Batch of 2 targets.
Target 1
Amino acid sequence: MAVKELVALEKCLGLNSGKYSSRAQGAGKIPVLQTNKGPSLVGLSTIASHLVKEAKKEELLGSTAEEKAIVQQWLEYRISYIDRASSKEDIRNVLNDLNHYLKDKVFVAGNTVTLADILIYYGLHPVITGLSVQEKETYINVSRWFSHIQNYPGIRQHLPSLVFIKNRIYASNH
Amino acid sequence: MKLFVGEGNPHGVKVLAAAALWAEHVHINRLQQEEKIVPFMSQPRLPALDLENGNYLFLSNAVCRYFYLSSGHDVCNLSNQWLEWEAVELQPAFSAALYAHVVQGRKKEEVIASLSASLSHLDQSLAGKPSPYLVKDALTVADIVVWGSLYPLIEDASSLPEEMKLLKHWFQTVSQLEQCQKAVSFLMKDGGSSVFKPYLQKQPVPITPSGKPTCN
């Protein structure tokens, strides 16, 4: 999964495909990129951040110290919380937190798209695919953000476009 | 900006050390128990940094990274890789080991022995380097993040396996920094790893990276 996602990111950034392998780590697998210069790089967010620099699109990593830290924080959240959500309750917690966080936001960090939007979109895709129409309405801010990112030029790549209904069909609790 | 650390929360060690090393104008608040500081998170998450402009950092590595970046440093690929390794591999393994030792009363040598894969990865990475640090020839955020994860359990370089000489030297070098000593005494008050007991007791039993619970 992680390697496929990095290949999608390369395409999104206009880079040629790199040489990847996987290393077992705990119950899962961790991606490894063989670079031309220097040693190989290990880990999804490390490799993704490296690809962004290779493509000379550093703005995707945030422009200020604060934005950079926020982007990397959400990359860690993606790996440590979204990817490790193993029960329905874990998934609900992740969606609740993100829904609350995105309430007043267009993008995850700052005022433009960043690597955090791209990797959280990739990581959430299987989760959102499994949601009912009603659940998509419950996590309305996540749905709005997700729909926006999947329509953002170049990001979606091979992933199927998910359907969101613009008008609520279930009575709101508010 | 305001930095919040929880009493007896081991993740406080690294953020306090990073604040002392690289941050200016940070007001440190020690909370008696886990409190909800970050408004968008349903569970209390400490340590947390309130940037006082509506933004919060709620993962300890992001807080350390922010302090490091705001003092004019850049984070290279290798540092990113250490921070990611710490979050994905080291932190879960050490949290489980600290829990087993402090809450379940397992012997320190035993739990440290169960961490040998992570520890030898560190020891081997230090081999062939002209400096005692993980990245380049100077202290970076990678050293503080990894050290801060080890410290609550290890405390003293002599607890590390005898044959891992480079690791012991690195651990001692970082521990001896004035800012690290200050962070440790602020949080641990010379009480040793038992100061983490009340906090850890309230946490769910950690699942080790191999997927097995630490008890039985």
Note: The mean pLDDT of chain B is 93.
Target 2
Amino acid sequence: MPAIECGKGHLYDPTLYAACPYCNSGMQTVNFTSPAGVPVGAAGRTAPVGAPAPGASAPGAPAMPIGEAGRTMPLEGSVPQPVNPQQPGVPVQSGMPSYAAPGTSVTADGKTMPPKGYEAPKPSAKVDEHNPTVGVMRKELQLDRDPVVGFLVCVRGKPRGNAFELRGQVTTVGRSSRMHIRLTDDMTVSEEDHAHIIYDDRGQIFYITPLKNRNIVYVNDRAVLAPTPIVPYDMIDLGQTRLCFIPLCGERFSWTNEAV
Amino acid sequence: MRLFKRREKIPKKVTADATTVPVKVHNVRLSYIVENLQGIGSRPRQEDSFAVLNATDVRLILDQGLFAVVADGMGGMQDGQLASTRAVEVLTAAFRQLDHDGNIGEQLCEAALSASAEVLGVCDGSGGSTCVCTLLFDERLYWCSVGDSAILLRRGDGLYRLNRSHTYYNQLLLDAVTDSADAYAHPGIDRDAIDADPDGVRLTSFLGMDPPGEVEFSRRPLPLMDGDTLLLCSDGVEGVLGEDTLYDLLSLSPHAACDAICNHIEDLASPSQDNYTAILIAVRQ
């Protein structure tokens, strides 16, 4: 059977469909609530690969009796019984196969539900995008955003050759778009807060803090398990990405000492 | 003797950056036949999503493996369609970046967690999706699952469900087993009460849950065998047809099996028929 892929991972037979029948399949309508006992015909099916070919039965299926119209019929006795163990109170209408096996979604209208009492996270619990916490350094220096205090230069991994800016006191590193430094291509880096790079502008010391990660953070090939000071040219391994630490602030430069 | 040794030389090739690397020699034994099916059931919208990658390219199957994913958007919440679509997008993108030398099971788990974060981001907690995904690589099966969709394997004379359904029903059963004093006899388990619990069908874990729910994945890969038939399906297939029927249907040829699954669901024509989606992968020598 000729099958092609539509580019979104759907397989279909191009001799039967001009375009992928599965993309935007929400547009299709199927009359499924047909009168009692009348099975919906093959024409009402939502375009499976095995489209209704005339006389298409199940070859090599001795146990499957073939119906008069050439349709594959269900095995005798293999049709589940029209009882609903989940909802004993619901009467089974005669002639109407109202059937649901255990484990099927049969809440009010059979829809898949979240756990009882599950509530969507309340908006108030989220960070207010319009009034985020203001960095101390930015506030003191009266800047639009926190000033650059150093850099992480990627020496191994996909962003090799690029530098990431360390800004303000705390720089978050992870894979998600909410992080300051986004290592989006390294699947071994945690989504959020793999590590924080912290700059103490009073003591002029940089620290690295390993956080919610599956993989150990290494500095110069030594495992870092707690907040640790880092010095220039330290090699930081986050997942499979290696970053070289280059500070701007320190003994020789500080934003607070610079006159405007 | 020397001649023989020469013949065993590992083939090498020179890559673009002028380094010589050994060429992987694939000992190809098994091939895969892939079919997919989807129907809307009696719902107003199609909220299931699925994707099969590399199914039409043998070369890519050898290099990257065959990846399949089915996601069932939750009808009981808002916009299940968006949730399932995004989940499939994130999982397929993760597959493209998979490190085949690393721990594949854990990477699939990480991918599911990323998908969950993505769904939570777009649906803001008011939508969710299940997912089951499988990777067939190097004639081994790796899988990952969240929610109540099923990965079924028909092998020999049996039909095996590889993943656990994350439903409240199963949680009640598990709790009862752990609580009961004699874990083997389970005298204390009141099956009738558990069966009758109206919340039994609720999911205990899904993509887009906050905090993230349980992700189940293959700790070690399952070697595939000639004659295996895998079925990834939403509960609109597995819950409706039942194990006996699916066991019979999966013994048919892949194409006929898909036809028969569709026909069976149509013949039942349940007025509460959920969206149904399945990917069938037949492993043949």
Note: The longest helix of chain A spans residues 136-141.
